[in-house]
Amino acid sequence: MAIYAYSWWTFLLIFVRITSFLLTAPLFSGRQIPVIYKIGFSILLSILCASVVKEPIQSMSLGFTVLLILKEFIVGIALGLAATIILYSVQLAGTLIDVQIGFSMASLFDPTFGANTQLTGRLKNILAILVLFTTDGHHLLIQGILASFDWVSLQASVPSWMDGRLSTFLLECIKQMFIIGFMMATPIIGTLFVVDIALGIIARTVPQMNIFAISPPVKILIHFLIYILILPSFFYLLNVLFENMFGSMSSILKIMGV
Q1: Residues paired with 107 in a beta bridge
Q2: CA 184 to CA 234: how far, in whole Å?
Q3: How many CA atoms does the CB half-sphere of 13 hold within 13 Å?
Q4: Spatial distance between the Cα atoms of 121 and 101, rounded to a whole number of angstroms
């Protein structure tokens, strides 16, 4: 009977970590996936992990159990955020472009992030998700949460929460998000900035021309032309993005596992 009790506590802690990871991880956290499917998938992964975990839970007090549940919740959240923050750079790039082109007035609900996003940001999100599925990135995300039990055992403490290493690394992820987002948006933003200067010169030299009626279609046309030209470089940046995303998951496991 005691063996079954130990197995139950082990399963519960594993389930908390996996569920909290799926709540924040890319692809799995989107509202397009029904909650019942997420719960069922978490239970399936938890059963598989509970059967091979190296350190099953022994008898412990109620207070210590609550602390372990809280720790597992934070570990799953931190691991999912490390990947999600990097992927937000795609939406950031789309938002910057839409502000420059004027598409920011129209917004769509993005179920992947559970928030409103602009047209270009939505397009970039779809392309990024398709590439992530094509390259089996969802398998690597699952492999990352399963590997976390080798780095951070169920009964281990996480000293990085107190010395600031974890928060510092998450801030580094945010910095990488802005860098990659600006890299994705810079070609179009720079081109549209030159177009704005040219239209401003035309408006001063030919005042009879209604520049407010000409500017939007011209900028939209140039936007799509440049977008087609730089589309191969976007997929190259996606490769860099995914490398940083999986690298950040590996790094955060090393930080919490020390």
Answers
A1: 118
A2: 7
A3: 28
A4: 12
Determine the structural domain holding residue 40 and report its residue range.
2-257
Q: The tokens 């996606």 sit on which residue?
A: 238
Task: Residue 249: name the closest of 15, 19, 26, 23 by CA.
Answer: 26
Q: What is the CA radius of gyration of the chain?
A: 23
- Do the Cβ atoms of 195 and 218 come closer than 8 Å? yes
Return all residues near 231 (Cβ < 8 A) that are at least 6 apart: none
| Separation of alpha carbons 37 and 44, rounded Å | 10
- Give the tens place of pLDDT for each residue, 15-34: 888 888 888 888 787 777 77
pTM, entire model? 0.77
Say if residues 238 and 130 touch (Cβ distance below 8 Å).
Answer: no
Contacts of 232 (CB under 8 A, 6+ apart): none
Number of domains in the chain: 1
Per-residue model confidence as pLDDT tens digits over 50-93: 777 766 666 666 677 788 888 888 888 888 888 888 888 888 88
